[in-house]
Amino acid sequence: VGWGAITRPLTMLALAVPMAWVVLARVGERRAWRQLGVAIAVGGATLLLWPVWSWATLGSLSPTPHALYTEQYMPWDRLGFELETRPPTEGEPAEVAAISREFVALHRAHTAERLPGILLRRVRYLLFPSGSGWRGALVAVGLIGLLAHWKRARFAAVSAAALILSYGLYAHPPHWAVYYVEIMPVGAFLAALGLWWLGDRVGRATPRPERTRVILFGVLLGLLTPPTVAGLQSRRALEGWFRRDLVRFEACVGRLERPAGVFVRHASDHDPHRSYVRNVADLDAAPLVTALDRGAENARLVAALSDRAWHVFDEASWSLAPWRGGSERGTRIDCPRSPGR
Questions:
Q1: Can you tell me the distance from the alpha carbon of 277 to that of 270, in angstroms, rounded to the nearest whole number?
Q2: Are 72 and 88 within 8 A, CB to CB?
């Protein structure tokens, strides 16, 4: 919990509740209070990375880099049911402004009165990947597993419920399942319990229950394998399409001599959810640094990282041009439209 709280504090707080339910009960039975104290000390020590991170990045213990970034660009990105209306302190680049318009509307509609409907829509989207098409039966089977094996399933079920309810404090699109990745195995676990229960009931009604169960699960595996493989292939094709332009960009900047720097100028119809800019842990040592094109402000970054040649990538024309002295001068490089060329 301590390690996860560094990057996912709300998630770890939610999952810590059912964990504490189990751990404290067992610690009480065994009177292992000393062991619990050591565990808390070790887990708590990882939280010291927070002030270390702040000091190493900003030279102060507070605010954290994340909190400062939120104030600078996304002050609306907060927990709760009220919209924060303060403007960003650093203005809004076009890419951030596009995201802001989408999420401000979400936060405005995220009220306590609407929370039951919001949670229902999120649960529906969480069930959709495992409950669409032929897999819809697995949702019913999972419910059977939950009811038939409640003692085995209750920790997983309570953990899932705690996470879903906790994120009720945060406004996000209902189809964004990334906040619930830790509980994704719960659906498969419940479905497995349900299938086992059904196989056990059918097997008992036959002269050779063990053989019957093996045959049933063999037939089930045979039926589910083709659509599962087809679904994986479809998903891979979709991801390939989504990453197509990113692969093209990487192939384009891969032609530059290192160390290199690239200012990215997005096209007017750019999808703000896809970014060519990548964060790196060490700007000075990174062979390639990418940053948004901020016009005259580019000179500040060039001065800080003057050991590299800087270029401007223009998404509209798919080209690279050298950046020198505040302007683009030199031979323009046309990037291939296909990463294989």
A1: 13
A2: yes
Cα-Cα-Cα-Cα torsion 71, 75, 77, 81, nearest 10 degrees, comes to: 140
Instruction: Write the DSSP assignment of 140-198 as a string of letters.
Output: HHHHHHHHHTHHHHHHHHHHHHHHHHHGGGS---TT-GGGGGGGHHHHHHHHHHHHHHH
pTM of the model: 0.82
Q: For tokens 């323009």, what's the residue? A: 332
The pairing of beta strand 288-292 with beta strand 327-328? unpaired
**Percentage with pLDDT > 90 across the chain:** 50
Tens digit of each residue's pLDDT (9 = 90 or more) over 22-38: 999 999 999 999 999 99
Cα 12 to Cα 20: distance, rounded to the nearest angstrom: 12
Tokens of 26: 């067992």
309-314 and 319-324: which strand pairing? Answer: antiparallel
For residue 196, with 0-12 CB atoms within 10 Å meaning exposed, 13-18 middle and 19 or more buried, which class applies? middle
Centre a 10 Å sphere on the Cβ of residue 133 and count the other Cβ atoms it contains: 8
3-class DSSP assignment, residue 85:
coil
